[in-house]
Design a protein that fits this description.
227 residues; mainly beta; four-stranded antiparallel sheet; four-stranded mixed sheet
């Protein structure tokens, strides 16, 4: 009898937990807002996208929003503002505002605190405003390394605000130019870290309000790498 009741309960659970129907098509929503850093300096040319998602139920965590497609995208202007109107397609159960950091191969002029964000757009059919100051402004810095007195290669590079697909590796060369990105208008410091089998070299990078490309020249030897 207990087994029969369990089977009945399980079947009723399955039938009562169907995936929700998609939202109707043609719901027009005006999405807008402004991105800044903590000092209210604008985040310029941050890419903003509208994503369409469909809820799929499961019995592990209740269900997840599964990405379907990008509806539209735009960039923030010189004041950090953006506008992105869109209309529902009839295929999604939710729509989200998505912003991301630049790709490692792109010029990195800003960075979100947590690598980007995804915000549920609710309610639909009205003006939806989303502002955020959870960003760093960045500026470019070229580091010129004189490595003629270094014997241990490769040298690996680590820097908090410089995105890369893989660990940067400096081969056995006498000189090397390294592009990094430094936080602007911020009180924090970040270390440029270089590693080899001898040890580690740390260089303190100060945050500034500099807008132009800057240069740092460093001459290193094996004794600069500390275990």
């Amino acid at each position: 009898m207990k087994k029969v009741l369990l089977i009945i309960m399980f079947c009723s659970l399955i039938t009562s937990c169907e995936d929700p129907d998609p939202l109707p098509s043609g719901i027009a929503t005006n999405v807008s807002g402004k991105f800044t850093d903590f000092h209210k300096y604008p985040i310029i040319r941050a890419k903003v996208k509208i994503g369409e998602y469909r809820f799929e139920r499961n019995y592990t965590n209740g269900g997840v929003d599964v990405f379907q497609r990008w509806i539209d995208s735009t960039y923030t202007d010189s004041e950090g503002k953006y506008k992105l109107p869109f209309t529902t397609t009839g295929n999604g159960t939710s729509y989200k505002l998505v912003y991301e950091n630049p790709e490692p191969h792109e010029e990195q002029t800003y960075m979100g605190f947590q690598g980007g964000g995804r915000v549920n757009i609710d309610p639909l059919g009205k003006d939806f405003v989303y502002n955020s100051d959870n960003f760093y402004n960045l500026y470019s810095c070229d580091v010129y390394l004189d490595l003629t007195e270094v014997t241990d290669f490769p040298i690996y590079v680590d820097h908090l605000y410089t995105a890369h697909d893989y660990l940067i590796k400096i081969p056995d060369v006498d000189t090397y130019k390294l592009r990094i990105y430094i936080v602007k208008n911020w009180f924090s410091k970040s270390d440029l870290k270089l590693y080899n089998t001898i040890g580690r070299f740390n260089y303190k990078l100060e945050s500034t309000d500099e807008n132009e490309l800057t240069e740092i020249h460093l001459t290193l030897s094996d004794s600069d790498f500390i275990k």
